[in-house]
Every structure is written in structure tokens, then in C-alpha cells.
Amino acid sequence: MAERADIHVPEPQRPLHAPPPTAAPKAPPARPAPPTPPTPRPAAPAPVSAPKATTDGVILTRASSLPMSAIAWLWQHWLACGKVHLLAGAPGQGKTTIALAMGATVSIGGRWPDGSRCAVGNVLMWSGEDDPGDTLAPRLKAMGADMDRVYFVTGARVDGEAVSFDPARDLAQLASAVVALGDVRLIVVDPIVSAVTGDSHKNTEVRRALQPLVDLAAQIGAAVVGITHLSKGTSGKDPTERVTGSIAFTAIVRVVLLAAKVTDDNGKDRRVLVRSKSNIGPDDGGFVYHLEQGEAAPGIPASMVTWGEALEGSARALLAEADADTPADTSDEIAKREGIDDVLIRFIGHDTVPGDQVKAKLKAEGFTDKQIRNARERVGVVVKRSGFGKEIASYWKLPDSVQLPEADAHSCPPAPFVPIDAHSQSWARMGTNGKKGHEWSEPDGADGPAGEVI
After folding, report:
1. Measuring CA to CA, how many Å separate 371 from each of 287, 349, 365?
2. CA pair distance 290, 11, nearest whole angstrom
């Protein structure tokens, strides 16, 4: 292989007067990188401070620390101390007069329809429908109330100005007045719907509005009775559901009482007060009552209540009779009615007979309680009651207007009618000195008041 010869290439010659070659411009020096910030240290935790003192919060009470107690009753199983009650009925049934009769009884420490004694105390009444001067006070007076123990709520003061009392606004002031007065055992609010500022058909608004009234009753230990109406077109429904407005009215109260009227075959009124609801005692039974005209003073007439026999049965059963239309008499019904009247008259005769004996006799003849009751009212039987509580008894006597031949008179040997507690006049009246029906002179030895009390 031939060897490669090195070839020398001479550098080009620069002209003698040519300037020296220009050097390439230098790049500007690079800016220094910004310094890396130091890594921040984690912040120290804030010191924990004690929670701020506050009055807000939830109160918890251990069950074992609560003292247990029984329900305190103003009227056993009918009016409870520290609770709210509802008294409902259709217009014209005497709801306000019944409440006034209750107030009259409390004011004098009288006796309830079942004969039990009431503790005496003060009474507060507010009515948005009746005038105290010409309506309410005369009724109280006619029923024997102690007028010094009854107080009407006639107004309130707001910012120093006298205004009309508004239960929805002035319950706090009422509570203060009640505490200052002391010994208040009964408060009547008529109508109770006035305590509701919102829609009385809305459950939540009714409950919120009535809670101050519930608190007031519990605070002072008084029985509160609110008066209201029944809704129209509700016959046959559950009695409690017939109350006007939201179901909250009957849910928030502890006892619901209903007043209704029965019309017998002769068109005579027979009114009943029944217990429709109670979650603190029995929720059935009732009493017959009558609305009568008395006098508060000469020339001042006034309505009053007299009380009759105790009734057994549920409110639905008792009011179903009140709601039922009276059918036209057929010849068979007329004959049966005349038959029961004749049996009743002949069995009682000239005697004073225990009511239980009369009922047993007529039931044995195939007659019902309603037929017996109607016959008693048609004949005008005078009914007296004696005793108290479970010992109460009724005695029946024919009025003087019924003529019974001596030969036809049936004589049975019941004990003579003598009141069990004659000196305390334990008659079936509540805050009334009025009479009902026919005159009847008491048997020898009885020193109670004359006149029928039903």
C-alpha cells in the first residue's frame, strides 16, 4: 500500500494594511438566581382558652333526682291543678255558664256534681264574648258565688297605657298578677282561640301559642279552663275531633269536656256534660245539667246551672244519643211509651223509692235506659241525691200533680230519704240555690233544702 504524503496548506496571507480581525462580542454576564427563601417553620398552635360563660344551653335532669308526685285535683278526675282543660260545645249549650258554675263552686268551697267537696280559692275569668257587668257577674251571684273571690280580667297596661287584654300578648303580665293575688285555683279563658296569634288550624302555630298558657297553669298550680266551639257538620265523628281548629287544641290540653243537648220525644231539652278525653284519669262518664233562669237581684235575671244524675258510658256513646234525630212516633212506640209511664207511676206510688230499684224494675219489663229517662222526665219524677263519691244514691218520688188511686198504689219498703250529710246540705247542686221541677217537702228528720235538684 502506498504511504499517504502529508500535504501542507499554507495560511492565507493578510494584506499588509488590513485591520486585525474583530473578536466576537461577549455575552452579558448571567443574572444571579434569586436566593431560595428559607422553609417557614410551622406556626405554633394557639393556646386553648376556657369556653366563654353563657346562659344558653340544654338542661338535663337525672330521672332519679326528680321527686315523684300524684296528680293534684281541684275536682277529682275532671279538673286538675296545674293543667289546661278544654270545655267545648255548640252555641247555646251554656259553656260559659258551666264555667261560671265551676267558678262559683271554687269561690265558696262548695260541692261538685258528684258530691265531693271543693277547696276554696280565688277565681280569675276573662271573656272576650260576654260583658262582666250585665252577664257574667249576675250569673255568678245567682249561683251563690263569693263575689269577693272572683276577679275579671278587664284590661292590661302596655307602656303605661290602658289597653284591652289580649291573651296572646299579655299572659306574662297575667302570670305576675296571679302570683301577686295568690290562692288562685281556677282560671277561665273564653274563648281559648284568642290566645293564638297565628292560624288556629295549623298544628305548629297552635302549640307554640298555647305553650305559655300551659306554663302559666304549671307555674301557679291552678286549673285552667279554655272554652271553644264544635265544628259544624261533625256529628258522628270522634268527639275529640269535633273541636274547632287544629287537633293541637285537644292534644296539648290534658282533659277535654263536651257539652251537648238531647231532645226527648216531647221536645224537652236534656243537656249532658261528658268527658271526651283525659290522659291523666278516666276518659268517660258525665252528668246531666239544666240551664235555668234565676235572679241575681230583684229585676236582674240571670242564667244558672243545676246538676242532675251521673252518666256512664263513653263520650261517643253519650253524644251519639245527643246527635241522633228523634224519629216520628209509630202507634207501637206510642203504646210502649204509655206503658212505661204507667209502670213507672204504679211502681213508685206514694213512696220515695231508690232510683236503682225503679230502673231495675223497668229494665225487667224490657225498657231501655233512654226510655226510662224519657219516662221519668215526662212524668216529672222528683229526683234527690245523697252521699258522696261511690256512696252516692238517688231517690225518686212522684210529683203532687200525679194522682194515683190508693187501691192502685204500689208500695215498696225503701228506707226513707235522709241525706247522709244533712248538716252540710249535700245536695246535687253546684253553686246554685235554685229549684228545678216540683216542690217536695222532705221526709221527717231531713233538714236539707226543699226542691228538686237534678
Report:
1. 18, 19, 11
2. 150
CATH 3.40.50.300 maps onto the chain at: 70-323
Under the phi-then-psi rule, with left for phi > 0, alpha for psi from -120 to 50, and beta for the rest, what region is 77? left
Q: What is the CATH number of domain 331-424?
A: 1.10.10
Q: For the chain, give every residue range classified as CATH 1.10.10.
A: 331-424
Report which DSSP code applies to 400. Answer: T
pLDDT by 10s per residue, the chain, length 454: 455 555 555 555 555 555 555 555 566 666 666 666 666 666 666 665 655 667 789 999 999 999 999 999 999 999 999 999 999 988 888 999 999 999 999 999 999 999 999 999 999 999 988 899 999 999 999 999 999 999 999 988 888 888 888 888 888 889 899 999 999 999 999 888 887 777 777 777 888 878 888 898 999 999 999 998 876 655 656 677 777 767 777 788 899 999 988 655 556 667 899 998 899 999 889 999 988 888 898 889 899 999 988 988 888 777 765 554 334 344 345 435 557 888 888 889 888 999 888 888 887 767 777 778 888 888 888 888 777 656 678 889 888 888 764 544 444 433 333 333 333 333 333 433 333 333 333 333 333 333 333 2
Q: φ and ψ at 119, to 5 degrees?
A: -70, 135
CATH class assigned to 70-323: alpha beta
Kindly state the cell numbers that stand for 151. Answer: 276577679
* Largest CA-CA distance found in the chain, in angstroms, rounded: 185
